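[step 3/7] inverse_fold.run input=structure_tokens len=323
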């Protein structure tokens, strides 16, 4: 089969397209022929060596496709079934071995590109709202990178819950998308960001900040958080937050900071399918409109990484193995 490989740690140029052996299913795995493969920020952290990985390896964790064969212990999925997943290493390929427990059947009405490029972000948005924090109707939250993949979905799911959403963005295009997703206030980054958030909240700040940008925004996130509020630091698009003195949380307002990861909120098949079920339902009933912002051939994965890291993307990014 054809696949992308990370040949060594480094920039997008270390991504090589070529032929590799087909995957062989373990007893509890299915082999899926991919139709759409998701590109996520974590793929770039692993490629750069920021998170541990050992080249050469096939990158990617997310996609959609059709089950073409299964290991002997798999009883829950059938050949020909359409599934999506976001925890199967080696997804930048024409075929992927996916643990059956991690594969989610895709309902009719959710297309391959949407499922294959947004399940990871959709499940993340779901657990950020119902796991890491629990904002309820009438609360106001701050979402950084409101025009990005997670940001657009998180905004729409928060609006479904009656939450007021303030977002940050870096461009007019992203501002327009964030407003379309339902953001009530859209701000640009800057040293006075926290002051502007306080202006919008009667001086109190917000009870929850969702920060996937990291190094560049963390200080403003803390300063924008209300007494007894929480900063949910869920990513590092601008780089990791430097070591931090916990004592600072005391005078800042008895604040909490959490640094969650999706795997811990989808650890059982039951929790994975519950979150995926609610996410797909929100797509089907029109509450969430997933913007597939960029499409590339599988062979052009390096261009996808370049654009994602250059802040040049909006919404989700998909690789198409069949082009
Ligand atoms: P996005 O589509 O949101 O892209 C990242 C965005 O971050 C950019 O578009 C940009 O928006 C903003 N940004 C700000 N500063 C920088 C910078 N220096 N370099 C690059 N981007 C910057 O990505 P995703 O939706 O894929 O992911 C969003 C975040 O969520 C990432 O940090 C990712 O790691 C994290 N994540 C965490 C998970 C978890 O479970 N912990 C799971 C999934 C994702 P703008 O130009 O408007 O500032």
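[step 3/7] decode complete -> sequence:
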């Amino acid at each position: 089969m054809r696949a992308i490989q990370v040949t060594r740690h480094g920039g997008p140029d270390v991504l090589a397209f070529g032929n590799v052996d087909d995957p062989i299913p373990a007893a509890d795995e299915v082999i899926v022929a991919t139709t759409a493969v998701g590109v996520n920020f974590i793929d770039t952290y692993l490629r750069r060596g920021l998170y541990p990985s050992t080249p050469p390896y096939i990158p990617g964790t997310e996609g959609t496709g059709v089950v073409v064969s299964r290991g002997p212990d798999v009883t829950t999925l059938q050949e020909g079934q359409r599934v999506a997943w976001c925890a199967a290493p080696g997804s930048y390929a024409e075929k992927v071995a996916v643990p059956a427990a991690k594969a989610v059947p895709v309902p009719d009405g959710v297309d391959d590109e949407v499922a294959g490029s947004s399940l990871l972000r959709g499940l993340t948005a779901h657990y950020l709202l119902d796991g890491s924090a629990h904002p309820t109707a009438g609360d106001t939250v701050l979402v950084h990178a409101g025009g990005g993949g997670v940001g657009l979905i998180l905004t729409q799911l928060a609006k479904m819950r009656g939450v007021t959403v303030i977002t940050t963005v870096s461009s007019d295009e992203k501002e327009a998308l964030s407003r379309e997703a339902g953001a009530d206030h859209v701000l640009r980054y800057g040293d006075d960001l926290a002051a502007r958030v306080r202006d919008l909240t009667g001086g109190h700040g917000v009870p929850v900040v969702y920060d996937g940008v990291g190094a560049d925004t963390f200080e403003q996130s803390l300063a924008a958080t209300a007494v007894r509020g929480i900063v949910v630091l869920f990513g590092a698009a601008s780089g990791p937050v430097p070591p931090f003195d916990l004592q600072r949380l005391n005078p800042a307002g008895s604040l909490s900071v959490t640094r969650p990861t999706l795997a811990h909120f989808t650890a059982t098949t039951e929790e994975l399918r519950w979150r995926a079920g609610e996410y797909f339902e929100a797509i089907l009933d029109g509450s969430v409109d997933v913007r597939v912002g960029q499409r590339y051939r599988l062979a052009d994965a390096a261009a996808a990484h370049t654009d994602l890291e250059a802040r040049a993307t909006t919404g989700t990014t998909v690789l198409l193995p069949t082009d």
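[step 4/7] annotate
The chain has eight helices and 15 strands.
The chain has a mean pLDDT of 97.
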